[in-house]
Amino acid sequence: MDKKEHELKIIIDPTSGIPYYRQIILQIEMAVADGRMKVGKQLPTVRGLAVDLQVNPNTVVRAYRELEFRGLVTTQHGTGSFISDIEMNMSDVERAQVLSQLVRGFVSQISSYGFTVEDIITYLTDYQEEIGL
To answer: Predicted confidence band at 5 (pLDDT cuts at 50, 70, 90)?
Structure first.
């Protein structure tokens, strides 16, 4: 399956220090920028996403409102929230910054359990072969 065909899977990291609503926004922005979320694609309902993420529905509302304010999402009352036709691109630098932040947090957490970077690389290489990427 092509990366562009993957469904959006929002995951909240309670240890990141980034507010939950910002994590939701960033993940939706990245999904739009890299083509995983296309124009007209419906976002999960506020209630559904809140339940999935185990967060207060107001957190999801705040994220969706900010996305709507930025023009990335349109909301049709009674129908839902949808990706708008606004052009969303992330530069290589912005993508690298997000990746760097995620990797640093991941490596820090893994290191606290006694694993090394070499352990991580070995596991990821094996995992990549296992799933056929």
So the answer is: very low
Q: Can you tell me the mean pLDDT for 16-28?
A: 91
C-alpha span between 70 and 98 (Å, rounded)? 19
Determine contact, residues 25/67, Cβ cutoff 8 Å. Answer: yes
Same domain, 33 and 78: yes
Both 49 and 110 in a single domain? no
| Closest listed residue to residue 57, CA positions, set 67, 42, 68, 44 | 44
| One domain for residues 14 and 72 | yes
Domain ranges, residue 106 = 92-131
Query: What residues have CB less than 8 Å from 12, skipping those under 6 apart?
Result: 20, 23, 24, 53, 54, 55
* pLDDT for residue 73 is more than 50: yes
Element (H, E) at 52: helix 46-53
Among 5, 59, 69, smallest CA distance to 37 is for 5
Instruction: Say how many domains are in the chain.
Output: 2
One-letter identity of residue 3: K
